[in-house]
Amino acid sequence: MENRLYINGKWREAAGSRQFPVTNPATGEFITAVADASAADAREAVEAAWQAFETWSKETARKRSELLYKWYRLIVEHAGELASLMTTEQGKPVNEAKGEVLYGADFVLWYAEEAKRIYGDLIPASAQTKRLQVLQQPVGPVLAITPWNFPAAMITRKIAPALAAGCTVVIKPSEETPLTAIRLVELAEQAGFPPGVINLLTVQNPREVSEVLLTSPLIRKITFTGSTEVGKFLMRQAANGVKRVSLELGGHAPFIVFADADIEKAVDGAIASKFRNAGQTCVCANRIYVEETILAAFTEKFRAKVEQLKVGQGHQEDVEIGPLINQEAVEKVERHVRDALEKGAQLVCGGQRLTGAGYENGQFFQPTILAGVTNDMLISQEETFGPVAPIYAFRTEEEVLDLANHPNYGLAAYVYTSNLGRTIRMTENLEFGIVGVNDPLPAVAQAPFGGYKESGLGREGGKYGLEEFLETKFVSIQF
């Protein structure tokens, strides 16, 4: 596998042959070193994307579709290899990693199809000697900044619609997980995308590279998944050039269980949502609200199943929860748990970093449940991004709706109920971009993904994701 930059159709070393290490979060072991891009490399990548845009934007939709189909088939063919690579550098269990690869491939397939369905309009004119048209055209070269928690799916979810629309891309993956990005780009090259259409910059400390990418007038669109803090910074930078932005930012998802819900399904759903990827997802359950009359029953069933979850290295058989991404992530989880306990929460299970045999040098934390959580605790105010499930009690629908909507985040919410009227009221009044009703994993390639409030701008997935990369042009012809 190439561990170099990919610029204008060529794999090459970074300027000065700079490199940085990639390590395994489950063992702390060195995996390999990859190219560490410089500002000069970034300028070359932007120029390559700009030059390629001239021809790629005019390529037929059929041709763009064919190349996306080829890329899709190659990703599926190499799904096992990609999953193993992802587990090694990111930590998630290998079966979960394979699920992510196939989920990511679905976006490539979807936009291979959508590439052929970019339509304009004819508008009735107000004069017999005029014809009015609306054209949809690609916005231009795109900067895609992707996170470490979904190193495959966040790339495909961003660049597949960009490529389908006729845009070229510069990808800057997380420094924690560059290897999955490199392998995906290798497969794209194998699929036959022309030079400059896809460019890849791996970089350890992105400040100087980001300065070039964010300020270049040749970059017309920024798409980013990551923290709200960084998203706000990117918005400020984009404003200087009035660049279009799509931001999928932090979340603080409520998981609401009413007394009329199927408790077994709600418990299983809470586990699927909360502990997937060791709790390192922006849509995972961060606040579990349970109606008071079923609180004890839910908590006991939840505890019994959470205590059975197997934690370990992602390549090991039957492992359900892998390591956190780094030491800082573990320290944040420890800080949230300690703060909650000091302020009166009760530890139901877990609560400790794992350091014994099989866990040495890794970033592991026990699956944890906290009861009696209140709104003054850090865990109620900040996104934990770890395997900690805080449980809150509520009495009425109005009360829990107010609690759920209180934070400035609005990415995903979950409701468990068997009451149709309540389903309608909750889905219409929750201030979130995604609502799963009796469904802990609602995201699919054909549907929009994005948030309200400080959880972001724009949508990814479905026809909505394609619109993010298109400009609308009005043409009036008089004859």
TrEMBL record:
Keywords: Oxidoreductase. Residues 11-475 form the Aldehyde dehydrogenase domain. One of its GO terms (molecular function) is oxidoreductase activity. Signal peptide: none annotated. Its EC number is 1.2.1.-. InterPro entries: Ald_DH/histidinol_DH, Ald_DH_C, Ald_DH_CS_CYS, Ald_DH_N, Aldehyde_DH_dom, Aldehyde_DH_Superfamily, Succ_semiAld_DH. PROSITE patterns: ALDEHYDE_DEHYDR_CYS (PS00070). It comes from the Bacteria. It is an enzyme of class 1 (oxidoreductase). Gene3D superfamilies: Aldehyde Dehydrogenase, Chain A, domain 1, Aldehyde Dehydrogenase, Chain A, domain 2. Belongs to the aldehyde dehydrogenase family. PANTHER family: SUCCINATE-SEMIALDEHYDE DEHYDROGENASE, MITOCHONDRIAL. This is NAD-dependent succinate-semialdehyde dehydrogenase.
